[in-house]
Amino acid sequence: MAYDRELVADDALPDWLRPVAEVGRRIDSPRFLSPSMPEAPATARPAAVLVLFGEGESGPDLLLTERAHAMRSHAGQIAFPGGATDPEDGGPVATALREAEEEVGLDPDGVDVFASLPRLWLPPSNFAVTPVLGWWRRPSPVGAVDPAEVETVFRSPVDELTDPANRFSVSHPSGWLGPGFAVNGDLILWGFTAGIVSRLFRAAGWERPWDTDRIVPYPGSARDPLVEEIETDAARGRRR
């Protein structure tokens, strides 16, 4: 299957999603996530995640995965579908769509890609991750393709993600403090994934005032779930 494709124009998107597309075109530095975010070095290993917006029964939503509960690390944590780039991938768009198909069974033909954000460097693993923004024009059934890696796949309504009752900051033992969201019941979205969601929503004008003094401890693992997901995928790729 061909995963690479041209970016679609704004008029191919629903009106509510166009502010996100405008933000995607405007962002030109990884510092959109954090003012101290460094540029990725040339030696960084490429990876990509799919930031997929859809529209379901509860209105606009975002596709997220919960990592398998039996995994040795990051059990039950939340991330976008994605992973390390394969040599056959033509670029980050191909990586993001291929990984989403492999992880959750997504039909890539139903996705219109409208922007890619600058690469985000994850120094501990030396991955440079490109967030690929997509519109789920023709939704397809999704679920955990490999239950050993993914516990559940769910669509988180934007209205719930922006609800002040579901917003807080997450504190890490290292001293790091970053955005957090309550999703899909009692799960916590944090780390790089939450940072991307928070910054995108704020820049698009979707953020609602919330209690920034509300702080919860990090949910169990000391490592970011996005880092863990990509490293797991890279190890799986070496075994293929």
TrEMBL record:
Annotated keywords: Hydrolase, Magnesium, Manganese, Metal-binding
List the cofactors: Mg(2+); Mn(2+)
Gene3D superfamilies membership: Nucleoside Triphosphate Pyrophosphohydrolase
Pfam families xrefs: NUDIX
Q: What Gene Ontology biological process does one annotation of this record name?
A: nucleoside diphosphate metabolic process
Going by the entry's taxonomy, the superkingdom of the source organism is recorded as Bacteria
Query: Is Chloroplast included in the keywords of this UniProt record?
Result: no
Q: Which InterPro entries does the annotation name?
A: CoAse, NUDIX_hydrolase-like_dom_sf, NUDIX_hydrolase_dom, NUDIX_hydrolase_NudL_CS
TM ranges are: none
**Which PROSITE patterns does UniProt cross-reference here?**
NUDIX, NUDIX_COA
Please report which protein family the annotation says this sequence is part of.
Belongs to the Nudix hydrolase family. PCD1 subfamily.
What is the protein name for this chain? CoA pyrophosphatase
Q: Name the species this protein comes from.
A: Mumia zhuanghuii
